[in-house]
Amino acid sequence: MPTDGTNDAEVMPPKPIPSSFASLGVNRWLVDSLTAMAIRKPTPIQAACIGPILEGRDCIGGSRTGSGKTVAFAAPILQKWAEDPFGIFALILTPTRELALQMAEQFHALGSPQNIKLCLLIGGADMRTQAISLAQRPHVVIATPGRLADHIRSSGEDTICGLRRTRFVVLDEADRLLTDSFAEDLSECLDVVPSAEQGRQTLLFTATMTDEIRFLKDKPPVKGMKPVYICEIDTDQISIPPTLAQTYLFIPITVREAYLHTLLSTPRNENKSAIIFTNRTYTANLLTQTLKLLGHRVTALHSDLPQRERIDSLGRFRAQAARLLIATDVASRGLDIPVVELVINYDVPRDPDDYIHRVGRTARAGKKGESVTIITEHDVLLIQAIEERAGKKMEKYEDDEGVSLEGRVVRETLQVVSEKKREAIMNIEEGRNEKGKKRRRGKALDTSVSRKR
C-alpha cells in the first residue's frame, strides 16, 4: 500500500472520541441514516478512521470484533459516492458469504436515502443473475474473492469493465483475506481494479494484526502518495472481552456428546442462547442432528449447507427461534448476532487466534458472557498455546450447588445420548437432514466426503 514519499506510514494514537458523527464531517443525510439504525455516537475506530478516509488517504484500521469497523469505512465511502454517484464506486471484499450478506444489509440501510444500488456476489447463488446485476453498473459491489474471481474468468469484459473505474477497494477481515487460501482469487480480483497511482483508495480493516498486515504497514513509501493512515485499537494485545468468564471441562473424548447435552440442560444453562463451535462440518452436522433428537432447539451454520439454509439458520438463531447454533469457524468472525450468552468449544481450535474470535461472540458491548472449552487428553498442548496467546488461563468449570455434571452423565444421559447419536449417524448415512427429510443424493455424498476430511 503506498505511502508518502518522505514520511513513513502514519500511525496515529486514537484521539478523544467526538460526541457526534457530524463533528467528524459526516453529512446530515448519513447522520440521519445512522440515527435510524440507533448509531448515534462514534466508536473509537469510527472516530479515528472516518476523517482520514474522507481526506482521501489509504487506511489500515485494526479493532476488536464488534467495535463498528463496517461503519468506519461505509460512512465515508457513501459520503464520497453521494458527491459523485457514478458506476461501480466501491468494491468490498470479505471472506465469507454471511459477512457479505450482513455488509450488504448495512450498506443498504445507510445508503437507501440516496437510492444506493448494490450487487452481491457470493457462492450458492445463480451466476447468470449476478452477472446481469454486475453489468448494470451498481454503485457498490460486495463480494467474496472466489465468486468475483469466477466472474472475472467467465463472465466477459462487458460484465466486469465497470470494476476498472472503482474508486475504493476494501478488504474486510483483511487478516483472513491475506492468507494463502485466498491469495490466487484475491490477486485476480485486484488485477481488474485501478492501481493506487490511478487514484484508487485502499482500506484494510481487521480485528487481528497479522504478519501480512504488518508487512503492508512497513512497505517503503511511494513518492507522491498521501501517507497511509494506521489506527490500532485493542489489536496488539489480543482482546478477550473483560466481562468474559473463560472455563474448561476436561473429559474423555468418548463422552463429549453426553457432557455437552448435560451441560446445556442444567438449570444454569437451559435457557441461554449458545454457539457451539466445531472444527469440521461433519461434526457440526452430527451434533445438530443428535441435539435435535434430544429435544434441543438447534440450527447449524457451516459450508456444507446450501446458501438458502445458511441464511435461514442465521435468521432463526438471531430471532431466537433456535436456542443453539452449531457452527464451524464461518461464524466466528464479524457476524452481528445480538445476544449470545454462552460459547462452547466442542473442538479445541488449532489456531489460538480462532479461539479469540470464537469466544468473542459473547460478552460483547460490556455484557457478561461465558465460554466453556471441552478439553480431551489430546488437546493439552493446544490449550497451552491458547492461554499464552490470550494472556490468561482458563478456569475449571465449576458445577452449581446440587448439580454434578459427571453424576448426571453416568446416571441419566450417557445411554440416551449414545442411542440418539447412533440414530443421527444413520440419518446422515441415509442422506437425511436434522428434520428427517432426505437430501438430494449429491448433498448426501458431499456430507460423507466431509466426514473423511
From TrEMBL:
<keyword id="KW-0067">ATP-binding</keyword>
<feature type="short sequence motif" description="Q motif">
    <location>
        <begin position="19"/>
        <end position="47"/>
    </location>
</feature>
<comment type="similarity">
    <text>Belongs to the DEAD box helicase family.</text>
</comment>
<dbReference type="GO" id="GO:0005829">
    <property type="term" value="C:cytosol"/>
</dbReference>
<feature type="domain" description="DEAD-box RNA helicase Q">
    <location>
        <begin position="19"/>
        <end position="47"/>
    </location>
</feature>
<dbReference type="GO" id="GO:0003724">
    <property type="term" value="F:RNA helicase activity"/>
</dbReference>
<feature type="domain" description="Helicase C-terminal">
    <location>
        <begin position="259"/>
        <end position="405"/>
    </location>
</feature>
<dbReference type="InterPro" id="IPR050079">
    <property type="entry name" value="DEAD_box_RNA_helicase"/>
</dbReference>
<feature type="region of interest" description="Disordered">
    <location>
        <begin position="427"/>
        <end position="453"/>
    </location>
</feature>
<dbReference type="Pfam" id="PF00271">
    <property type="entry name" value="Helicase_C"/>
</dbReference>
<dbReference type="InterPro" id="IPR001650">
    <property type="entry name" value="Helicase_C-like"/>
</dbReference>
<dbReference type="Pfam" id="PF00270">
    <property type="entry name" value="DEAD"/>
</dbReference>
<protein>
    <submittedName>
        <fullName>DEAD-domain-containing protein</fullName>
    </submittedName>
</protein>
<keyword id="KW-0347">Helicase</keyword>
<keyword id="KW-0690">Ribosome biogenesis</keyword>
<dbReference type="GO" id="GO:0005524">
    <property type="term" value="F:ATP binding"/>
</dbReference>
<dbReference type="InterPro" id="IPR011545">
    <property type="entry name" value="DEAD/DEAH_box_helicase_dom"/>
</dbReference>
<dbReference type="InterPro" id="IPR014014">
    <property type="entry name" value="RNA_helicase_DEAD_Q_motif"/>
</dbReference>
<dbReference type="GO" id="GO:0010467">
    <property type="term" value="P:gene expression"/>
</dbReference>
<dbReference type="InterPro" id="IPR014001">
    <property type="entry name" value="Helicase_ATP-bd"/>
</dbReference>
<keyword id="KW-0378">Hydrolase</keyword>
<dbReference type="GO" id="GO:0005634">
    <property type="term" value="C:nucleus"/>
</dbReference>
<dbReference type="InterPro" id="IPR000629">
    <property type="entry name" value="RNA-helicase_DEAD-box_CS"/>
</dbReference>
<dbReference type="GO" id="GO:0016787">
    <property type="term" value="F:hydrolase activity"/>
</dbReference>
<dbReference type="GO" id="GO:0003723">
    <property type="term" value="F:RNA binding"/>
</dbReference>
<keyword id="KW-0547">Nucleotide-binding</keyword>
<dbReference type="InterPro" id="IPR027417">
    <property type="entry name" value="P-loop_NTPase"/>
</dbReference>
<keyword id="KW-0694">RNA-binding</keyword>
<keyword id="KW-0539">Nucleus</keyword>
<feature type="domain" description="Helicase ATP-binding">
    <location>
        <begin position="50"/>
        <end position="227"/>
    </location>
</feature>
<dbReference type="GO" id="GO:0042254">
    <property type="term" value="P:ribosome biogenesis"/>
</dbReference>
